[in-house]
Design goal:
Blueprint (H helix, E strand, L loop, with lengths): L1 E6 L4 E6 L1 E2 L4 E2 L2 E2 L6 E2 L3 E2 L5 E2 L23 E3 L6 E3 L4 E2 L6 E2 L55 E6 L5 E7 L5 E10 L2 E7 L12 E2 L7 H15 L7 E7 L2 E5 L11 H16 L3
Length: 283
Amino acid sequence: MLPVRIENRQAGVTRQVVWDPLRHSIEPLVCDVCFRPKAKLFLCASNHLACGDCLAPQCVDCKRVYCQHCAAEITACVVCDRPVCQKSLNRCRECGRGTCHEHIGLCHAADGQPQRAEAGAAAPPAGASAKRIPRKQVPKRKSPAPEPAASTAYRVVAQIEKGEPLVVAFVLDKDDQEVAQRHWVLMEWGIQVRCFCEKGWRCKSARKLLKPKAAAQIEAQLEAEIAQLCAEYRVPIYQMSTYTIQQGAPARISKLSLGGAWKDKELLAAARAGFLAEIDQPE
């Protein structure tokens, strides 16, 4: 049992996690809302850990995140209907209605009623009537699509860990500085993907769970995952190398060659069954 401190800018909580020395992994923590173990949890502003399915809408002003237990902390702007938390809500002294910061002064601008506006519309000065500020119907100009930023990645190194069903891929720049890191680990409920990159919790790969294929196709499955990582960072496939641990030191091999639990037919069958059970569980 290990105490772990989890913090963000609005909240902090300490939880006990369980380290499994046989699997060399941490057992997933449980969502405080649905009580299901999840590999990805978020800390809400009221110190609850919640999965993505159990989060309330995010506040448009302060960006605070609340879970469904704290849904009463989130209300809606009377002008644009976007979610605003109670801490960021701007309450009008005259009519008592609440708005987001962008639409202050429009809560009773239309003959005592809220001036309806689309989300993101610019608000007129506070106290100004909607009739005094005519809106011109100007066609929106399409902005050119932004060009993708140049990637700093230069090569990808995949490493097969010894003694545990784990494959790690490192994305490196020309100075061999790490840009990103992605793990594929065989669990009892499938192949859990973990990603440590610049996208943080927004990275879709950090929330992926793969159904393992049969032992004869398991290398091809992981090779396809590594190739996808190369494509994400625009690294040519010939700039990818694979290593394994031999006699305590990394040794380069020509292609991905797995063994141990990765080739255990019973473990793979159990992981596929666990994958289906995880997917089929009701929300």
